[in-house]
Amino acid sequence: xxxxxxxxxxxxxxxxxxxxxxxxxxxxxxxxxxxxxxxxxxxxxxxxxxxxxxxxxxxxxxxxxxxxxxxxxxxxxxxxxxxxxxxxxxxxxxxxxxxxxxxxxxxxxxxxxxxxxxxxxxxxxxxxxxxxxxxxxxxxxxxxxxxxxxxxxxxxxxxxxxxxxxxxxxxxxxxxxxxxxxxxxxxxxxxxxxxxxxxxxxxxxxxxxxxxxxxxxxxxxxxxxxxxxxxxxxxxxxxxxxxxxxxxxxxxxx
Length: 254
Description:
By secondary structure, the chain is of the alpha/beta class. The strands form two sheets. It has a six-stranded mixed β-sheet, with helices on both faces. Strands 2-1-4-5 form a four-stranded antiparallel β-sheet, with helices on one face. Helices cover 39% and strands 24% of the residues. Mean pLDDT is 86; it is low at 107-120 and 250-254.
């Protein structure tokens, strides 16, 4: 279980995220929505360690992550995808996934043992990387340099890298950003597959409300860095505060 308690960050006199307390249970997909500048990505950055918090705490399965760097939080089980792809462009597709598998696995590649052990371990890492590529339908592109891939395939590969890290929490920040109408369903299908694993927690920042309605078990709404709504998707979307803050509709004068 992932928890934030009074999580806050200030930039000078501006409070970008203001005392947000929330609990995210395994087996659920929570959509985090709000207008531009609401603090959604900043909240993600505080959870994953890209930004240090001014105040508040982050816990994962009872373990305090507050103060740990992003790399340590990844090892603890937080998997983060960004609005912009974060890949190794000059390596092949397979090499990208194998590097992620290697980072998550113990083995001879970490211990400097004899060459036979290292070769055997390398073979196992490659096999696991190929299994992940098959699950995201990218086996045919395994030898292609990442820089040559279209944007949609790079987004798919980023999901593959997250899967290779075997996190307990998946964090997707606008996963279909920059994708064409034809490309977006592929990423959404991958998220649907991940959602079937009830041991995983998924957080999703997304502006497309049709995607949110379909995928989310729960919606939380941030506005000016404050948590203003939390609950069932249909109820939250219909609430007056969301109609005003997120959808831009004025409240009924009465």
